[in-house]
């Protein structure tokens, strides 16, 4: 059984949902680094101080998210060292100490998003092609989804981030929108930040409309 950590040097855009070399918006990480202040706020809300000693790990974790092309394996998350260097290159206010908290949060959010997508996909047989795969992704915290905009008009708090993932299901591509909301503070295990993900297919395709209607009517 092989080790889940890639020890073979620098990463590429095909190895992880985080492209740490290219900075175009369409290739940013599913968890937008621009939202790191919110993640840190949740993670450190009940801490009196941040850790003073740290070592930036170069180890990487393999996700449960299959890549778009069959046979390419799964996406690989960045190490603490890669994540920190990516933030520095983007001139973000990055602190090495934060990486011990932000990287696990980053990975957990990706896994939660994929779990929610799989809940939608479980009603559709894709066993013939090995199951759904993540083809592409982009994040834009400044762009509200129609549902988030409507909820804000009703007086509810808006999401602090929004992402769009394209999933391939045996040749059928389905676009998903993901709104990220901050949950109540977790006063117990601080390694488990509180957040809520509103994940659903977009209504910009016949397939997306069919999926939403099927879910709405409990079919």
TrEMBL record:
<dbReference type="GO" id="GO:0046872">
    <property type="term" value="F:metal ion binding"/>
</dbReference>
<keyword id="KW-0999">Mitochondrion inner membrane</keyword>
<protein>
    <recommendedName>
        <fullName>Holocytochrome c-type synthase</fullName>
        <ecNumber>4.4.1.17</ecNumber>
    </recommendedName>
</protein>
<keyword id="KW-0456">Lyase</keyword>
<keyword id="KW-0472">Membrane</keyword>
<keyword id="KW-0349">Heme</keyword>
<dbReference type="Pfam" id="PF01265">
    <property type="entry name" value="Cyto_heme_lyase"/>
</dbReference>
<comment type="similarity">
    <text>Belongs to the cytochrome c-type heme lyase family.</text>
</comment>
<feature type="compositionally biased region" description="Basic and acidic residues">
    <location>
        <begin position="16"/>
        <end position="25"/>
    </location>
</feature>
<dbReference type="GO" id="GO:0005758">
    <property type="term" value="C:mitochondrial intermembrane space"/>
</dbReference>
<keyword id="KW-0479">Metal-binding</keyword>
<keyword id="KW-0496">Mitochondrion</keyword>
<dbReference type="GO" id="GO:0005743">
    <property type="term" value="C:mitochondrial inner membrane"/>
</dbReference>
<keyword id="KW-0408">Iron</keyword>
<feature type="region of interest" description="Disordered">
    <location>
        <begin position="1"/>
        <end position="29"/>
    </location>
</feature>
<dbReference type="GO" id="GO:0004408">
    <property type="term" value="F:holocytochrome-c synthase activity"/>
</dbReference>
<dbReference type="InterPro" id="IPR000511">
    <property type="entry name" value="Holocyt_c/c1_synthase"/>
</dbReference>
<comment type="function">
    <text>Lyase that catalyzes the covalent linking of the heme group to the cytochrome C apoprotein to produce the mature functional cytochrome.</text>
</comment>
């Amino acid at each position: 059984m092989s080790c889940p950590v890639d020890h073979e040097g620098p990463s590429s855009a095909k190895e992880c949902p985080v492209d740490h070399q290219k900075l175009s918006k369409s290739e940013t990480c599913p968890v937008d680094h621009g939202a790191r202040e919110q993640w840190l706020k949740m993670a450190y809300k009940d801490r009196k101080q941040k850790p003073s000693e740290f070592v930036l790990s170069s180890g990487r974790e393999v996700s449960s998210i299959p890549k778009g092309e069959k046979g390419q394996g799964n996406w690989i998350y960045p190490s603490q060292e890669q994540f920190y260097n990516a933030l520095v290159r983007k001139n973000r206010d990055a602190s090495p100490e934060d990486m011990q908290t932000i990287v696990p949060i980053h990975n957990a959010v990706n896994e939660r998003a994929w779990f929610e997508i799989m809940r939608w996909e479980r009603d559709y047989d894709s066993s013939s092609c090995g199951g759904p795969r993540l083809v592409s992704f982009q994040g834009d915290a400044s762009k509200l989804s129609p549902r988030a905009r409507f909820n804000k008009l009703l007086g509810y708090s808006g999401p602090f981030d929004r992402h769009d993932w394209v999933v391939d299901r045996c040749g059928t591509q389905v676009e998903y929108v993901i709104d990220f909301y901050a949950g109540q503070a977790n006063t117990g295990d601080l390694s488990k930040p509180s957040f809520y993900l509103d994940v659903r297919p977009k209504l910009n395709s016949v397939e997306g409309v069919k999926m939403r209607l099927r879910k709405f009517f409990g079919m």
